[in-house]
Write a structure and sequence with these properties.
heterodimer; A: alpha+beta; OB fold (Dihydrolipoamide Acetyltransferase, E2P); Dihydrolipoamide Transferase; Chloramphenicol Acetyltransferase; 3 domains; 8-stranded mixed β-sheet; 4-stranded antiparallel β-sheet; 21 strands; 24% strand; extended; B: alpha/beta; Rossmann fold; 2 domains; 5-stranded parallel β-sheet; two-stranded antiparallel ribbon; 14 helices; 45% helix
Amino acid sequence: MSEIKQFKLPDLGEGLTDGDILKWMVAVGDTVDVNDTICEVETVKAAVELPSPFAGVVTALHAAEGETVPVGTAIISVDVSPGAVAAASDTEQAPAPTAGSSAEDMVPTLPAAASGAEIGAAEERQMTLVGYGPQEGGSRRRRKVTPSAADPAAARLVAHRVLAKPPVRKLAKTLGVDLASVPASGPNGTVSREDVAAAAGSRVDTYPSSGQSQVTTRRTGDHSVRETRIPIKGVRKHTAAAMVASAFTAPHVTEFVTVDVTATMELRDRVAARRDFRDVRVSPLLFVAKAVILAAGKTAQINATWDDSAGEIVLKHYVNLGIAAATERGLIVPNIKDADALSLRELAEAMNSLTETARSGRTSPADMSGGTITITNVGVFGVDTGTPILNPGEAGIVAFGAVRRMPWVVGAGPGERIEPRWVTQLAVSFDHRVVDGQQGSQFLSDVAAVLTDPGLALL
Amino acid sequence: MTEHVRAVQPEPDMVQLLTPEGQRVEHPDYPLDITDEQIAALYRDLVLVRRIDTEAIALQRQGELGLWASLLGQEAAQVGAGRALRKHDMAFPTYREHGVAWCRDVDPMSLLGLFRGTNLGGFNPHEHNFNMYTIVIGAQTLHATGYAMGVVRDGAVGTGDPERDTAVLAFFGDGASSQGDVNEAFVFAAAGNLPVVFFCQNNQWAISEPVTTQSRVPLYKRASGFGFPGMRIDGNDVLASLAVTRKALDDARNAQGPTLIEAFTYRMNPHTTNDDTRRYRLGSEAETWKLKDPIARVKAYLLREAKISADFFTDLEQESKRLAEHIRAGCRALPDPTPESVFEHVHVDMPNELREQRDDFAAFVSSIEEVSA
């Protein structure tokens, strides 16, 4: 008599739920040997060839090429003892993929140890374990008897059996709540924080306040998290208001320039090697800052304010240089007061302390007010450039892109050639009410000129 | 891509005793006195080890194993090193040293439980002087170094007694060489002049990370910075692996301190059965390495140069089939663990509290009954 065995799609990765049949290598009627490739399957992790676990004659393919098959579904039937009967007809087969069917089940049953989490819980689907498909139908496990409370071992058992996460257990301990006495309303019969709080008769703040913005997730009816709602507050709220105010009051114009900054990078190396600079970080940004300060001194309009209420343009004869800083709380723009009066070493120190203060979340409102012009260092994110939005009250903002090795045409005439050079992009956005195109262009080309040839700073 | 091409170029100073074409060559520093019968025995190891690997991959694809880390292409490095060990030496593997396990007489069946999830390692390390598979990358180099410290304190180094002098062999890969653990192991081994040999199988890829992005110098050259010798061998040459590891282990036993061996080889298969090499490397690279296959060159030698009968190959084919059947049948028959087994092998003497938890848990589990859905 023929003996049909089915091969069910195993979990080919760790915790995968399905796979696509890419290609069948065998057809009904083919003879296969153990480990002969039967098909190619693609999962989210890899495309792999499946070897046959049986030797015999293929009697059925249960999935078409291109079909997505859930793990645990029979994909092929093989007659492992053909010949005794002329041919196994379809009616004789019982290709039902459920456990306990007459066809031999190649997917082993879930071992008892693995199903602890599901005990007593009415879950839709068993946890997918390595090599075992999700069980559909079949049997479930439940407690035979409720242990008697009089039995001390059983009582201990009850205490161990209460399902709750460690922080909830700690909360219960703190509030003096016996977890075993709390009605559980959490998923899978777990005792939740709210359950403990209710039992303690007090409203307990679900999320201990730590100055962090509070994130609450809202679950949809099918219990899958599709959206996360974050309250708009703090830095995010401030940033949004400032950006909207700026973008819709100051007419922005942005200009770009690509610069060969090789000379600046070389100067940076020489400066960084100096004894008097040994304690400070000498970054390319430092030289951009210096160049912006110098160029702002030549084009007064870029370092100015449009005072709408007074009907005046205020030209600043000092530079409070803002540096946009990405912090855990969001984007903030502290500024260095009277940056134009600082030596390069002092400017480096000021920038170091500004970023450190910002990163540690200790930037004060005073640090962030009174800025006159801003640099945003988008290059640290590997970005080439952008169109920055003005810090409200300012007329200019410079974006400093990533400094890259790029091919660059150098020399002239017969000496003209392409060399790898350090190249970056600069962008400046300005308030067109204050700054004309000619002035904005002059400012940008002044910044670029100093970075191309830092010696110009002496002029 | 040029970097990767360079990674497959052999170094001029790489030790090789059997060329990819199966020609025996001599190396002045590593003379190897070996009979053709012994080479045939190594060939048997290589073939059977590859069969274990092939069978385990098939079992994973059939849903019988959760995972498998294939050694395809690295058989020679492992068998050469494994056969260089003496019985009382101690070896510390990663999770890919199936070939070394074979040389330490560990039943391949014992390796499968870990990958099937039915046990945490199915053999006694002290019986085979072969530690449990270590999943944490590079951690075993520190275990090996610690073991070597113990060997020194036992006075089992440099006595001149071959029954007593002991060496330790630590396996790791090119990816692990970037780990702090491995570098710490180097520091301690050098400082203590410990009898440990660091055997790095540089298979060129740390999952998807090529070795060229990890090191600016060939890995074996790192040893000089720590103060001990390092050398690169053709990792697909079982004779080079045997000769160089044998010499390094001898040095270790004779109180000459540690050695780093970089076996220059190639991981022909994905990192594990969960990985897909097509996402990060060119197929042409593997094609290059196929020409350097560790088994084909030994077969070529045996057929052309040695007087090995054709029966040897037929018998080996049969033996290989029997081994595969043993693994297939045995894997499915591996016993499922009891729920209480999770409490075992943690403490030598189980504390009362843990014993109580175990008994409660057993009582709880036995109170569960099957009901139909």
